[in-house]
Specification:
There is one protein chain. Helix content is 11%, strand content 39%. By secondary structure, it is mainly β. Among the domains are: 85-198, SH3 Domains (SH3 type barrels, Roll), CATH 2.30.30; 206-280, SH3 Domains (SH3 type barrels). The protein has helices spanning 2-26, 274-280; strands at residues 27-29, 35-37, 59-61, 85-88, 94-101, 106-111, 114-119, 123-124, 136-139, 146-150, 159-164, 168-173, 178-183, 186-191, 195-198, 206-210, 221-225, 234-239, 243-249, 254-259, 262-267, 271-273.
């Protein structure tokens, strides 16, 4: 009996070690306490776009708790304040809108229970005196991949969340060191140096949809990238049919777009302009 007992203990230890190894592969942590789900950073992300990017799609998980946590070795996360949005109708009246994703030209909102794209310039919300050329920005964190949003204008304050580079945000108040923004239904302060300010409404821009082999109703999903380079960071894979606003194209086959709250780049072969889609129907 004693001999059998000695054999079972190592077996239990081996099982625990294997379980730990599996969990360590599935969840890894960033240096400042952020958690990455979906691999160890070296897995290839297989979505159609032909770039053979070495980056895998990863999600920074930083959900705010139901109530503030006690201070510990990692950052303290708190809930964000909410912001009200109103959409100006043709007759000048206002209607409550739920912002889903922001864009400098078109934003996705929910009106009367339906999701629709509207002109961002017709959305009303509380804002301080911000110059027109600084009302929109995108998070610029190309090295780390994300930036931290704080609940006060201090890096020592509680954390509202972390947001990936190239996310479009609405600027509420500009400061020298910290700027107050709305991004993905969260309001807080971000280092001004982590923002690139974007021009507001631009005339003569065209709209398009994500497509595969020219088909916008295909079941494929297409990667969008941080910049127009073959191995640039993948931001998200968008389903065909996703609405885009097109800003520019390059000779080597890239298109600069806004889509689903991103300022991003996509291979031009996966872009079907709305004018082409209408002509083919």
């Amino acid at each position: 009996m004693q001999h059998g007992t000695h054999l079972r203990v190592p077996a239990l230890l081996i099982c625990l070690i294997l379980l730990f190894a599996v969990c360590a592969h599935a969840v890894t942590y960033t240096e400042d306490g952020g958690m990455i789900v979906g691999g160890d950073g070296n897995d290839d992300f297989s979505v159609v776009d032909g770039t053979n990017s070495s980056y895998s799609e990863q999600t920074i998980v930083t959900p705010p708790p139901e109530s503030p946590q006690e201070k510990g070795p990692g950052p303290t996360f708190v809930k964000s304040e909410k912001m009200d949005f109103y959409f100006m109708l043709e007759d000048g009246s206002m209607e409550c809108a739920e912002m889903i994703s922001a864009g400098t030209v078109h934003s996705l909102v929910e009106l009367n229970g339906e999701k629709t794209y509207v002109d961002t310039c017709r959305l009303m919300y509380e804002i301080d005196e911000v110059p027109d050329e600084r009302r929109y920005a995108m998070i610029n964190a190309q090295k780390s991949g994300y930036a931290t949003l704080f609940n006060r204008a201090s890096s020592k304050s509680d954390v509202v969340g972390r947001f990936m580079t190239n996310r479009i945000c609405l600027v509420l108040d500009v400061g020298e060191k910290f700027t107050r923004i709305w991004v993905d239904d969260s309001v807080g302060y971000i280092a001004t140096s982590s923002l690139t300010f974007l021009e507001g409404r631009v005339e003569n821009l065209v709209t398009a949809q994500v497509s595969y082999n020219g088909k916008t109703k295909s079941g494929n999903r297409i990667n969008i990238h941080m910049n127009g380079k073959n191995k640039s960071r993948i931001l998200e894979d968008l389903p065909c049919g996703t609405h885009m606003t097109v800003f520019s194209t390059t000779e080597d086959g890239w298109t600069e777009i806004e889509a689903n709250g991103w300022h991003a780049w996509i291979l031009s072969e996966y872009v079907t302009y709305d004018s082409e889609e209408t002509a083919s129907e």
